[in-house]
Amino acid sequence: MKAINARPEIDEDCRARYEAYEREHWRELEQCVSLANLSLQEVMLHAPAFIRRREMARLLAHYELFRLIAEMPGSIAELGVYLGAGFFTWSKLLETFNPGDRGRKVYGFESCAGYESFAPQDGACRPWVDRLIGSMQPGEEYLQRMVTLHNNDNFLRGVERCKLIKGDICATVEEFARNALGTRLSLLYFDVNLFAPTLAGLRHLYPLVLSGGVVAFNAYGSPPWEGEGQAIEGYFAEIGQPVPRMQKFAFSIYPNAYFVKP
Fold first, then answer.
1. Residues facing 163 on adjacent strands
2. What rounded mean pLDDT belongs to the chain?
3. Is residue 1 part of a domain?
4. Is residue 4 part of a domain?
5. Are residues 134 and 181 in the same domain?
6. Residues 78 and 97 reside in one and the same domain
7. How many angstroms separate the CA atoms of 149 and 172, rounded?
8. What whole-number distance in Å separates Cα of residue 27 and Cα of residue 192?
9. Within a domain: residue 180?
């Protein structure tokens, strides 16, 4: 009898068709930009005309998460910054809705090394990301310059709102928590997908999340990311609590799950 496997198989034909669609979409968009002779400034000033539906959904989901913590104290931490789509969104939302509250920061934890150090608990996810290993490395200089650019666009120019914390996330979250000096979190966002950084983030940062704060995960319950689920369920078993009731926004695949801390 053939074993039942809940993991999705990699359908190479389906993947090829989707990648062809992606290439066609971006090629057509580039041609539209070229046809209108648009500069980067013009594209960014009219960004809603160029953003895809799924990225718009992600932006709206981030806004809905922020609404849940807008009137709370506490900073925001994101694990897994990559190019900063989430990290800088949190910064802009705080600057828009809480411009006078300079105590609320956005901390972005990023290894700048891409996917690496798969644990046995990560299961069979590696074939899904093999082509990304070594490529998802944003570069420290890029991120630091983007941080400076965003902080210079703040309500109070140059006054720090977002801060990049570079290095192995398993180590940097521990050091951050050890030197928290009263820092508390209203939102803890995981975009790392793998077992080890997710477990480390929960162990060291979840105790800093205020009651009523939000914890969100990009890949919980989403095959093939077995490691994130193992880390979440293992952590709550460690502290003798049930896994919190997870929710999600029906209109967006990101985050795949979030909960409000009791």
1. 107
2. 91
3. no
4. no
5. yes
6. yes
7. 24
8. 29
9. yes
Residues 38 and 75 in one domain: no
Same domain? For 42 and 140 the reply is no
Closest CA to 71 of 104, 40, 47: 104
The CA angle 75-201-114, to the nearest 5 degrees, is: 105
User: 130 and 225 in one domain?
Assistant: yes
Does the pLDDT at position 15 exceed 90? no
Q: Say how many residues make up the chain.
A: 262
Same domain, 182 and 57: yes
> How large is the average pLDDT for residues 221-249?
93
pTM of the model: 0.91
How many domains does the chain fold into? Answer: 2
- Residue 254's contacts (CB-CB under 8 Å, 6 or more residues apart) are 57, 58, 61, 218
Let me know if residue 59 belongs to a domain.
Answer: yes
Instruction: Report the C-alpha gap between 204 and 189 in whole angstroms.
Output: 13
How many CB atoms neighbour CB 158 within 10 A? 9
Output the pLDDT for position 104: 98
Over pLDDT 70: what percentage of the chain?
A: 87
Task: Tally the C-alpha atoms within 13 A of residue 98's C-alpha that lie toward its C-beta.
Answer: 21
